Amino acid sequence: MITVFGEGRGFRVVWLLEEMGLAHRLRPVDLLAGVENDPEFLAINPAGFIPAIRDGDVTMVESIAIMEYLMARYGPTPLAPAPHDPAFPAYQQFLHLGEAGLAASVYFVVGARSFAPESERENWSAGQALDVFQTRLGLVTRQLARTPYLAGDRFTAADISVTYALELAQHGAGIALGETEKAYLARTSARAGYQRAMETCESRKAWFARTPVQ
What we know:
By secondary structure, this protein is an alpha+beta fold.
């Protein structure tokens, strides 16, 4: 039984596990209450951020690294094209762009707009982070004008990575996406694996209900 600690980016991991049909459980982590009050979680990840997983003797952090581990350990899976597959370069690019280019930058926009004092919500750093997100989003938009999914005609883990980032932008930072991105999210979020993951991640589902998108 694979244990996923924490929602947030842990949603990517839960969704992947659902798509792969792997047994798992979600162990909630309340960051707002303070991880210093959660010694079990700190024993898994002393750095105190989510997600983390425990898989037998293996513990890991970082959502994209966890996804790559799971697909390599329990694959092969069509969610990860093989290196000789023509879809592999785009898959690899967007799998990592979903975090490094999109979610990592918009995270700071979310923090500024949700938690900073009013006078700091549009500060220089938040503006820079938003610019980074928007330039990388342009790569997503261009790719989706060519193919229905980011690695081509079939759904892959790259779509899990990017879908999470786009939904974070919508619900966390109030960023309005274009019609191309909205249609893409309608495709990815209609998947049975996504729907099962949302039922598991109750806090995320409640957050979405509180933050309707533009």
